[in-house]
Amino acid sequence: MKLSELRQGDRAKIKAFQSPDLQLKLMEMGCIPGEEIVVEQVAPLGDPISVRVAGYSLSLRKSEAGEIIIEK
Predict the structure, then answer these.
(1) How do residues 39-63 score in pLDDT, each as one tens digit?
(2) How many C-beta atoms lie closer than 10 Å to residue 26's C-beta?
(3) pTM of the predicted model as reported, rounded to 2 decimal places
């Protein structure tokens, strides 16, 4: 399952990344495999998505969220 498929209030654990190009950028922002991630808000048109990870809020584009593989 991908992070972009979750709805507001859903929780999951980060499992892996699809794109090696985006992996380093996401890991620098605290999106590390095994870390719990919570969807805080989704914009009315679905982009961006606000999530809480590693103790802080982070806004991701829907395309970036689609690169994060999670397990619910």
Answers:
(1) 999 998 888 999 999 888 999 999 8
(2) 21
(3) 0.83
